[in-house]
Write a structure and sequence with these properties.
6-stranded antiparallel β-sheet, alpha+beta, 3 domains, Hypothetical protein af1432, binds succinic acid, binds ligand C2E, 17 helices, 491 residues, binds fe (iii) ion
Amino acid sequence: MITELPLQNLPNANQGLEAVFQAYGDFMFVVDEEGTILEQKSGDVLQLNISAQKNIHRKIQDLLPFEAGRQIVDGLSDLRAKKIAAQVEFSVSNISGKSWYESRLIPSVNRQVIVFIRDITKYKQSEEKIKIQLDQMAALRSIDLAITSGIDLTQTLSMILDYTRNHLAVDAASVLLLNLQNQRLEFAAGAGFWTAALQHTQLQIGEGLAGQAVQKRRVVHVPNLKTRKTDLLRSPFFGRENFMEYYAIPLIAKGEVLGVLEIFHRSTLSADQHWTNFLHTLAGQAAIAIDSAMMFKNLQYTNDELTLAYDKTIEGWSRALDLRDKETEHHTRRVTDLTLRLAQRMNIPDSELTHIRRGAILHDIGKVAMPDGILFKPGPLTDEEWVIMRRHPLIAVEILKPISYLIPALPIPRSHHEKWDGSGYPNGLAGEDIPLAARLFAFADVYDALTSDRPYRRAWSQAAALEYIRENSGTHLDPNIVSLFIRMMTE
Ligand code: C2E
Ligand code: SIN
Ligand code: SIN
Ligand code: FE
Ligand code: FE
């Protein structure tokens, strides 16, 4: 059985609508094609300064702020042309800020139009907030990338300062780094300054506002620099900057203070929770950038030290070899210099030259395994002695192979006795199968051996040595390099 409700207990349609407008603060107008108001329902009448009732027969565009009225008129003409609902958006500024409205124009009977106006300020504000947050996240991501890609510190800091200025809307910002040697805070990067006032900043810990932030490991905030006597004023141009509000944020990574981020604004900043959070995030990023740059620098330094130590070691080995074989003393240094000069003329890149230098220094290290009776024999070697002597390149490889940083230097020790026509040792390589470094080195080695005294013969003249090299072009030596070498030796 259906219960029949008494009719008067049902809200009529009109009352229901009224309730909706009261609840949501929307406006509704029924207008004719020209915007003349025929009917009006208003929620929060204060919002747009529209009075609740007395607007019948007035034009809707006259009730609204000028720009909003213009939009509505455009909407009405759109509607006349296309007969479909139109939508416009407008904002109104007043003392309490900016409000946003959305208006929908819906065609009704008898060429009438229903105009709804709704306050969408809250929606617009959160949209704006989300956009800002997305921008900030993108900024942080870019900073992360800069840090991990190892871009140099000054560049990374400049980038962080640009983001600080743009996203926190501050006039100027700078970073001072703590110099561990003299324990002073020194200017490292700045953005937004009119003068060079702060570029020579050098503060002791505890000195000045920045020094205090570092000493106390706390943010120092000065709402108005102009009413406060600070050390900043000692800088001759600082007054011209006309700064008002100031923050100093200590930059701390892994518990160590690495520097300080300073924020300067020429008027009052409106810092809310979100602003402060982002400031601290940026300061954290700056600290990480500084820390990782310092770690990289230390690593580089350690690496340089290690390389230097290794190079000293291999020079030591080669000197030990020279000491044993007095007659070839300085041979190593001379062939190394000659090989590098030749390589430079061939425009071989510097990174390669390092390996060529090491390879040349170590080329005959395998001779440590040659018995004195063979190495110092005053006459020609027998076949058996040659078998042993020809092992010196592979002995060098065995000695050097376990040292990973010498692997790129191995072509010269391994292949310096290969010949262009394939008749050399230890592998009988021919032509360009012989590594270029070894082909270059062979010129220097043969030239210097021939022009030096050996236990088995006296030194040749330079002319005789060059003649030998010319004659052996294409058999022993790379024919494409011969003329370059001879030109280099006769210049
Ligand atoms: P090394 O004395 O430093 O000679 C290096 C290379 O220069 C030699 O490689 C060879 O290509 C060239 N060279 C040096 N001296 C002469 C020479 O008098 N005539 C000619 N045509 N080329 C010369 P190679 O031949 O593979 O020799 C490698 C190493 O074997 C030499 O280094 C040296 O320590 C030793 N050796 C070579 N020949 C003799 C020799 O007749 N008696 C002795 N005791 N040792 C020799
Ligand atoms: C050494 O100095 O003993 C090696 C140089 C050479 O004979 O090639
Ligand atoms: C090369 O051979 O690879 C360049 C120099 C030369 O022609 O030998
Ligand atoms: Fe050799
Ligand atoms: Fe040699």
